[in-house]
Amino acid sequence: LETINKELSSSTEYMNSKHPKEKDEYTLYWIRWPMCIFFTSSIVASGLGMVGFTAISNNLTGIYGVSSMTTTMLVLPFIILFIPCIFPAIFLIEKYGVVIPVYIASISLLVGAWIRILVNENFYFVIAGQVLMAMGQPFMLSAPAKLAALWFGDNERAIATTLGSLASPIGGILGFLLPLIFIGDNDNLPNEDCKHKFWMYTLVQNIVITVLGLPIILLIRNTPPTPPSASAEKALKAKKTGFAKPIAKLMKNRDYLFLMLSFSFIYSIYTTLGSCVGAISKEFGYASSANSLFGSVYIIGGLVGSFAHAILLDKYSKYKLQYIIIGVL
Length: 329
What we know:
Blueprint: H1 2-18, H2 22-25, H3 32-51, H4 57-64, H5 68-72, H6 76-80, H7 82-96, H8 99-115, H9 124-141, H10 144-151, H11 157-177, H12 192-213, H13 215-219, H14 230-237, H15 244-250, H16 254-282, H17 288-316, H18 319-328
């Protein structure tokens, strides 16, 4: 009997080692949600910094005596630098995890934001700060999917990814509305009062960016102690192949190229109007408060459209038909 019991015990241990219960094998760690929330808040901060001066660009031309092209440069670095910076961002995320890219993004965001406080010394300090923030933004925007894949269960991943995707538009809405509190339509003269108002707005914006963007530095982790799902376990064990081969493969995929081109056209219209809304509206006699309304409605409309299209795609799966409708619109 003793021998049989030992054999049965050994057999049970073997079976448990080969076929562990899913609830014992996969653990969801509580820190995943604080990381996701503060990761989202840091992207909101980046969106705020990107468009935070767009609505009052006409005021800035009067206060600091700069051209419309110069005020447009407050947004253009985020568009221009995204392409060269996205490749090292993806490389670091795939090779070393999300911690190093998040540190790069957060430090550049915070340092760039506070450089702009020297605006009354020279307006080009604002542009320098925007350039630094723009260089770090791709390192943050590339990480939400990776964070969701490695830390969240299969039924939570879509929610976590969606939060990261919606963060930048929410930051954009905040960036269009916040200036209304500090800068009026008539604050467009090169005097100390107007310069002080803009300095105060920059200070408040920096404080908001710091509160939203700093906590993730303290909480971010690369991977949980154990994988939260089978797909996460597979991803953790997968061999690192880099991104050169996948990109080369995508460039040979006709359907992907058509999709990329159509998205590029739509996104170029969005970013162009977003960065030039002040200069365009000025020609038609609109004030800065109207620019805030234009930008906010513009982004809110995009959010509503995203939800509507997502629901329709989920229900009917008519991808080609829906892309044709989007193209016509």
